[in-house]
Specification:
This protein is mainly beta. It has helices at residues 2-25, 253-257; strands at residues 45-49, 57-62, 69-74, 81-86, 92-96, 105-111, 120-125, 136-143, 158-163, 171-176, 183-187, 193-198, 207-209, 211-216, 222-227, 233-238, 242-246, 263-265, 272-278, 284-290, 297-303. It has a 5-stranded mixed sheet, with no helix packed on it. A 4-stranded antiparallel sheet has the order 1-21-20-19, with no helix packed on it. Strand 16 and strand 17 form a beta hairpin.
């Protein structure tokens, strides 16, 4: 009987300990923050691009309808076409945009638009190659094709024309906010880099006066930009660097960009660094350059750590 009482007492202590652990002291630790980090590899994975096809690459964006591919545009003097580039660099397909004109295409964006469930491509004819700074810019909007063998439907091409509220500007960065469907143009200035917004829905029949949201602190000579597919991250690049912003809860894109960047990312030197975009799945970001005087260029991937 004494042994039974002794064992009963020990069992009671063990059970009490188990109950205590389950209810409080031994609760599992909270899950780690799953928010994507702002840390990326500084040495890129490089894929060779065959010269002679996209030597004047000026903008790049991930294809949302054809995963594993990118849309690349070339600037003035080149065809009014987008180029479907595979992630391994082995396939480049030129696809004409019927009804458009390439005065100076500088960037391309992808995402939602006027019709629900449709992915659109936005082509920014916003540069000033071979002419003075422009008071008026044009953005072509067209549904993204879902088949590499299909062609763009020119009957669905829309033209968004806008002017700046503070005089002529040169610009090379076009971005789309996937949440609001607002478009953002970042001017190419040595300083006082302007942030201009075209609020959704954008008119396709009248010239819109862009709204100036402020300036991007500490960033000059912007050559490209991109907002992630989920709208939570922003990349802006210059010839020598890439700047990264994490969009805080409750903040708009315009509010975020008027603050110093979350981080300046180190990137490899390119012949003429022009284009940047986030991977569609958020696993890292890509850059591509104009060939300039180099023999060839590469598609560079900076993996998220």
């Amino acid at each position: 009987m004494k042994l039974y009482k002794r064992l009963s007492g020990q069992i009671g202590v063990v059970l009490s300990s188990i109950i205590f652990c389950v209810t409080c002291a031994c609760d599992p630790p909270p899950k780690p923050d799953e928010t994507p980090t702002a840390d990326f590899e500084t040495t890129p994975q490089k894929v060779a691009i065959t010269p002679g096809i996209v030597d004047e690459a000026s903008g790049i964006v991930a294809s949302y309808n054809m995963p594993g591919n990118f849309w690349v545009n070339q600037d003035s003097g080149q065809p009014n076409s987008l180029y479907l580039l595979s992630v391994d660099g082995k396939n480049i397909r030129e696809m004409n945009i019927p009804g458009s004109a390439n005065r100076d295409w500088e960037d391309v964006a992808a995402g939602p638009g006027p019709n629900a469930g449709v992915n659109y491509l936005y082509i920014g004819d916003i540069g000033n190659n071979n002419e003075p700074k422009s008071q008026v810019g044009v953005i072509f909007r067209i549904p993204e094709v879902a088949n590499a063998n299909a062609g763009f439907d020119g009957s669905k091409l829309e033209k968004i024309t806008f002017s700046y509220p503070d005089g002529p500007r040169d610009a090379e960065s076009l971005m789309l906010d996937p949440a609001s469907k607002d478009l953002f143009i970042i001017s190419k200035e040595g300083q006082n880099t302007g942030i201009y917004r075209l609020a959704f829905p954008q008119s396709t029949t009248e010239t819109i006066v862009a709204e100036k949201m402020g300036t991007v602190p500490g960033v000059g000579l912007v050559t490209g930009g991109n907002i992630s597919k989920d709208g939570s991250e922003i990349l802006i690049r210059t010839y020598l660097a890439v700047y990264y912003w994490k969009v805080k809860t409750g903040e708009s894109i315009g509010q975020t960009l008027t603050q110093p960047s979350t981080k300046q990312l180190l990137v490899a030197l390119e012949p003429q660094g022009e284009a940047v975009c986030m991977d569609a799945d958020g696993n890292g970001f890509y850059t591509i350059s104009e060939r300039s005087s180099a023999a060839s260029v590469t598609l560079n991937f900076y993996k998220r750590k």
